[in-house]
C-alpha cells in the first residue's frame, strides 16, 4: 500500500512537471523577419506540441506573411530539426535539448553553464512549408493526433496484458476521454480511465512497455532516432551471484524483479557493462537520471507518459 | 512448425523474409530487397536481393507504378504494354526499363543517389508528363504484437498524399467500408516507418495474430508460408496481390 502511495505521488510530480518554452515564429514566415516577439509558456512534460498551436496561431496572426494558414498547419523545429509531434514534449526535450539531467548527486546552484543555457527551450514554429518527408500532417479536427495516441495506448496495453482486449473493450467515450485527459493534462480524469486498463497492483504486467532511445551521433546530418524495443517481463530468473541482495518480498522464488540496470545491461551490454552502476552512459526519464536499481514495472506504473509507455533516453557520460 | 504461432519470433520472421525473396519470380518489373539494420544498400538492381551485415529487419517490396486516369481508378502503368487488366491480380505488370528506372529513382530519391547506377531521378521525373503514383510496400516485424506489419508509402509526382488518397486510390472498393469502420481513423493509420522514421501508412497489426490463428495452424506452416498467407490476408485490402509465381515453385504450395 505504501508503495502504491509513493507511486501515485511520483506520478503527480511528473504530471505537474513543466518545461519553459520560448517559441519564435520562423523568420521567413514573419513580416518582421526575426524581430517578432517570442511566445513564452511553461508546458507540461506529458502534453504534446500541437496542443499549443491554436494559441500560437492567434499570438502570431498579425505577423504572418501567409494570413490564411490554419492552426493545424503548424509544426515545430529545434535547431532546424522538425519535431515529431506524436512524442510528448518531455521526451522531445530529453532527446534534443541537451540539458544535463537531474540526479541525486548533482547539487543545486552548481549547475554548469550548458545546463543553464538549455532553458528556456527555444523552438521555432512554422505555419507554412510542411516537411512532408519528416512529419505526418495534422488535420483540423485533431483526429490524426488522437489516432496516433490511441495506437500507442493499444500497444502498451497489449504488452501489459498479452491481449488487446482491454483497450478494445473500453467504451468509445472513455477511449476519447483518455486522450482528452492527456491533452488537457487532467490527472484525475486520466487515472479514472487508466485504472480500467491497468492490471491491479497485485497482478504483475506480462511485459513492460518501455522504449529506449539511443544517443544521436553528434555529426548526424539527418538525425533519425534509433529506438529499441524488446519484450521485457517484470521478473527474470535470479542471477546466481546477486540473488540474495536483489530478491524482494514481491518476487517468486528463483525470480528477481527486472530493473532498469538488468534491462540496459541485457539490451545494450556495450553501453552498460554493469547492471548497477552507469559507467559509460546513463538512462534519463522526465529529465532525471533513472536509478539502475529501479524495478521497471514500478517505473512504468509511476512514470509512464499518458500513452502508457516509459520512454528512456540514453545519454553518454562525460 | 512455428514455435510461437500465431505470432513469429525474430528468427522465424528473418527466415520468412529470406524465403520470400528466394521464392519470388525473377522475371517482371518488380523486385524485393532484404534490409538490414546496418545500412541501406548503395545500389539496386532489378533482381535486387541484398544481404548485408547486421540483423535482418524486413523486406522491401518494390513494384507497382500507377497512373491516374480520368475515372480516378488506378491501373498499372504497363497495361498498354502487355499485361491485361483481367490478369492484374495474378501477374505483376512487366515494366519497361525506363519505367523501372523511374520507380527506382523515386525509391532512392531521398537517399544516396551518387552510387545508384544509370539513374538520374530528376530527369526521369521531369520526362514523365502524366500524374503518377508509386507505392512502395515494406514488411516489418512488430516488436509489440510480434506479427508482420505492412507499411507503405505513396510517392506522387504531384502533391503529397494523405489518408484520403489511400482510400481513394489504394484500397479496393470492397474493403473500404470494412476498413473505415474500425479504430479512430479506420484500419489504416498514417504513422512513421520504424526504420527510416519517415511518414508511412500501415495496416493495423493488432488483429493479425487472431486472423492468422483462424486461417492456418501451427503444425503445417513454415515461416515462408506464414508470410504468404499473411500477405494474402493483409495485402488485398491495400492492393498488394501475391503473384501466382510464388505458389508455382517446387511443392511449396501453401494450400
Automatic annotation (TrEMBL), chain A:
Q: Which GO terms describe its molecular function?
A: Atg8-family ligase activity
> How the protein sits in the membrane?
Peripheral membrane protein
The UniProt entry's GO CC annotations, sorted and at most eight, read: Atg12-Atg5-Atg16 complex; autophagosome; mitochondria-associated endoplasmic reticulum membrane contact site; phagophore; phagophore assembly site membrane
The Autophagy protein ATG5 UblA domain extends over 14-127
Q: Which terms does the UniProt entry file under GO BP?
A: autophagy of mitochondrion; cellular response to nitrogen starvation; piecemeal microautophagy of the nucleus; protein transport
A Pfam family: ATG5_HBR
User: Which InterPro entries does the entry link to?
Assistant: Atg5, ATG5_HBR, Atg5_HR, ATG5_UblA, Atg5_UblA_dom_sf, ATG5_UblB
Q: Where does the Autophagy protein ATG5 alpha-helical bundle region domain lie?
A: 144-200
Q: Which Gene3D superfamilies match?
A: 3.10.20.620, Autophagy protein Apg5, helix rich domain, Phosphatidylinositol 3-kinase Catalytic Subunit, Chain A, domain 1
Keywords, ordered alphabetically: Autophagy, Isopeptide bond, Membrane, Protein transport, Transport, Ubl conjugation
Q: Which residues form the Autophagy protein ATG5 UblB domain?
A: 207-314
Subcellular location per UniProt equals:
Preautophagosomal structure membrane
Q: What is its main location?
A: membrane
KW Membrane (keyword) present: yes
Q: Does the keyword Lyase apply?
A: no
* Protein's job: Involved in cytoplasm to vacuole transport (Cvt) and autophagic vesicle formation. Autophagy is essential for maintenance of amino acid levels and protein synthesis under nitrogen starvation. Required for selective autophagic degradation of the nucleus (nucleophagy). Also required for mitophagy, which eliminates defective or superfluous mitochondria in order to fulfill cellular energy requirements and prevent excess ROS production.
Which family would the database say this protein is a member of?
A: Belongs to the ATG5 family.
Q: How does the annotation summarize its subunit structure?
A: Conjugated with ATG12.
Q: What is this protein called?
A: Autophagy protein 5
- Say which species the protein is native to: Penicillium alfredii
Automatic annotation (TrEMBL), chain B:
Q: Which Pfam families match?
A: Autophagy_act_C
Q: Please tell me whether the keyword tRNA-binding is annotated for this protein.
A: no
GO-annotated cellular components:
cytosol
Q: What keywords is this UniProt entry annotated with? A: Autophagy, Protein transport, Transferase, Transport, Ubl conjugation pathway
- Record bears the keyword Transport: yes
Q: Which GO terms describe its molecular function?
A: Atg12 conjugating enzyme activity
- InterPro entries, alphabetized: Atg3/Atg10 (IPR007135)
Cross-referenced PANTHER family, in alphabetical order?
UBIQUITIN-LIKE-CONJUGATING ENZYME ATG10
The name on file for this protein is Ubiquitin-like-conjugating enzyme ATG10
Q: Which organism is it from?
A: Penicillium alfredii
